[in-house]
Each structure stands twice: as structure tokens, then as C-alpha cells.
Amino acid sequence: MSLQDTLEQLKTATLAQINQVQGLTELNDIRVQVLGKKGSITEVLRSMKDLSPEMRPVVGAFANEVRDELTIALEQKKIDLEEMVLNQALASETIDVTLPGKTVKTGTPHVLTQIIQEIEDIFLGLGYQVIEGNEVEQDEYNFERMNLPKDHPARDMQDSFYITDDLLLRTHTSPVQARTMEQHDFSKGPLRMISPGKVFRRDNDDATHSHQFHQIEGLVIDENITMGDLKGTLEVLLKKIFGDERKIRLRPSYFPFTEPSVEVDISCFKCGGAGCNVCKHTGWIEVLGAGIVHPRVLEMSGVDATKYSGFAFGLGPDRLAMLKYGVNDIRYFYQNDRRFLKQFNVKG
Ligand code: FA5
């Protein structure tokens, strides 16, 4: 029998076998037996050495044809068998429609985001704009324009993380004051803005200090702005957050960018002013710094200080949230522990 006949027979027999086969393992056995390194086709190819040089390419081409045809048949059968296995599995599978579904856990805004949004809503209602500032800020805006020239001793209270000598992570939101004032067109009306955001300080972390925390800056510039405007505004804010029965108190303080400057306290929400462990037995809790914008700060940002005056404040929403919800350690806000955070799922 010629080699071509042998190949023809091999092809017919293998195709019949492939056709009959019922399992993937047996199919693989056929593939190895016929197409493998020691398989029947390889054997035929080996015996080609005995052929005449004219016949070799003819038989070689035919052998390749047979091999390709069998390879395709094997692949097709493999697909058919896999589909059959899958269909059998699906047919035997039953779905228990009475099983309870998987609960999808929805997230909730972080408690700090919630308090910042609550404060934004209050100020939007009072006609303020909400401005976004830069977290990476120039020394010029963070300090110089806030009346804190280089070597000013008050810089020590706000040591920062420097990127270059002139570029730093801002230590407070006050630089937004300068950036907003220089942009504002006062011929179109007064400036009223708040600016919430992250600030950074080289503070050692403890229960009430974090190296990264939030501030909300507030700034109003118009003609004839007084300390009374500041006090009235803060009273509205703090009563909305902590309740109508809260009183507020201004104490003299010092900030280079405001004159006069004040620290603002609210009467203790726990004891109502009688004295307790929350207010360190003083009846009052300090919540923010504020004051009348220093004329030099106005002038440095191109505002005519003989015509305009303004008030500014900087409050720490982290501390407000601690007071409002009775959280005794600021670090809980930044640890991303769901057991802590889910307690503030107040929005549903
Ligand atoms: C300032 O940062 C001023 N820029 C605020 C200001 C603005 C005054 C405008 C006058 C006019 P102070 O360093 O006190 O001030 O910070 C303001 C508030 O930020 C504090 O009352 C406190 O609530 C919060 N705060 C300060 N340091 C930290 C800290 N390490 N961790 C958490 N909160 C802090």
C-alpha cells in the first residue's frame, strides 16, 4: 500500500473515531495517538525517507493536508463536547428562588463631608459663594499676603511640609482670602465667600490635633463691616449647628492677618455652661479664630482699605464634628474604620 493510501485510511479511521467519541479525555487520547510526537502521522512522515525525491514533496503536502483536516476536526469536536458538558450542568442545576438576595451595602458621605456640606448650605443660604483653594500653595499667599513676612515669629505656630523654599502644603485656608480678594470686582458688589478644604501642619497627632485636618475660611468685604456683623454671622452658624440655646462669646486673641482678633467660644453643649469634663469646667468650648481683616492684608491684595473693611474667620470642621457628635479622638476620622463611620449614616 502506498503512503498516500495509508494516510487516506488513517484519515478516514480517525475521523470516524472522532465522530464517535463521547468524552474530552478520549478525544485528547486520539489527538496524541494521531498527531503527537510519536503519533501515526509522524510515523508516516518518517518513512518518507524511502521515497523517491519526486514523490517526497507530493506525499509531504498530502500528509500536511491530512494533519490540518484532523486538527480542525479535533478542535470542532472539543468545542461540541464542552458545550454538551455545560448544557448538562445547566440542565441539572435548579435555582432556589426562595433564597434571600445579597444585600448591597451602600456607602454614605464621610461624617466630615457631611458637616462641611451642612456649613456650606448655611452660608449659601446667606448669599455666600463657595470657593475652592489650592492645597499646594505659594509661601507668598500662605504667609506673606497674610501679613506673616519671612522670620515673623507667628510662623512658628504653623510649621508646614515644604516642597521647595517657596512652595508648601498650605497650613490654613486663609491664603484663599488673598486669592479671592485680588480676583473680586468690587464695583459689582461686596465679597462674601467661604472656602472649605484640607490643610496640613507639622503638628504631632493627638486626640485633638492631626497633621492633616480641615478648615473653612470665611471672608466678607464691603463698606462699613464691623465686629457686630462678624458676631451676628457666627451666632447664626453656631446656633444652626449646635442648637438655638447656645450662646457665643468672643475673647481677644492674636492673628497677624486680623486686627482686632478673637477666639470664638460656644457655651458647652453638654452642661449648658455649668462646667463639665467636655468644657474642662469652664462652661465654654473654643471653636474658631476670627477678626477684622488687617488693612495691610486688604492693601496687599489691591483692596482700598480706606473704603472697604471686612471680617474673616477660620473654623475647624473636624473639631466641630467632634463636639457635635461627642467624638473624643480626632484620629477616628482618618482611620477609615467602617464600624466608626457607619454611625454617621444620618442621610440614610
Ligand atoms: C488659623 O488657622 C487661622 N487662619 C484662622 C483665622 C482665619 C483667624 C481668619 C482669623 C481670621 P488656628 O491655627 O487657630 O487659626 O486654626 C483654626 C482652627 O483650626 C482651630 O480653631 C481648630 O479648630 C483647627 N485646628 C488647628 N490646628 C489643628 C490641628 N492640628 N488638628 C485639628 N484641627 C486644628
Question: Your description of this structure?
Answer:
With 348 residues, the protein is α+β, with helices and mostly antiparallel strands. It is 40% helix and 19% strand. The strands form two sheets. Strands 1-5-6-10-9-8-7 form a seven-stranded mixed beta sheet, with helices on both faces. Helix 2 packs antiparallel against helix 4 (55-92) and helix 5 (111-125) crosses helix 10. The longest helix has 38 residues, at 55-92. The protein is elongated. It binds adenosine-5'-[phenylalaninyl-phosphate].
Summary tags:
about 350 residues, alpha+beta, BirA Bifunctional Protein, domain 2, 2 domains, 7-stranded mixed sheet, 3-stranded antiparallel sheet, about 40% helix, elongated, binds adenosine-5'-[phenylalaninyl-phosphate], ligase
Write the layout of secondary structure elements.
Layout: H1 3-20, H2 24-35, H3 40-46, H4 55-92, H5 111-125, E1 129-130, E2 136-138, H6 139-142, E3 162-164, E4 167-169, H7 175-183, E5 191-200, E6 212-222, H8 227-242, E7 248-255, E8 258-267, E9 284-293, H9 295-300, E10 309-315, H10 317-325, H11 338-341
Parallel strand pairs: 1-5
Antiparallel strand pairs: 2-4, 3-4, 5-6, 6-10, 7-8, 8-9, 9-10
Helix pairs in contact: 1-4, 2-4, 5-10
The structure holds adenosine-5'-[phenylalaninyl-phosphate] (FA5).
Give a brief outline of the structure:
The chain is α+β, with helices and mostly antiparallel strands.
Structural class: alpha+beta
Number of strands: 10
Average residue-wise pLDDT: 91
Report the total helices. 11
What separation lies between the terminal Cα atoms? 85 Å
In total, the number of domains comes to: 2
Determine the CATH topology of the largest domain: BirA Bifunctional Protein, domain 2
Describe the global form.
elongated
Series of H and E elements: HHHHHEEHEEHEEHEEEHEHH
Strand content: 15-25%
Strand order of the largest sheet: 1-5-6-10-9-8-7
Under the CATH scheme, which class of the largest domain? Alpha Beta
Question: Which hetero ligands occur in this complex?
Answer: adenosine-5'-[phenylalaninyl-phosphate]
Poorly predicted spans: none
The helicity comes to 25-40%
For the sheet with most strands, the description reads: 7 strands, mixed
Question: What is the architecture of the largest domain at the second tier of CATH?
Answer: 2-Layer Sandwich
Radius of gyration: 40 Å
What's the CATH H-level superfamily name of the largest domain? Bira Bifunctional Protein, Domain 2
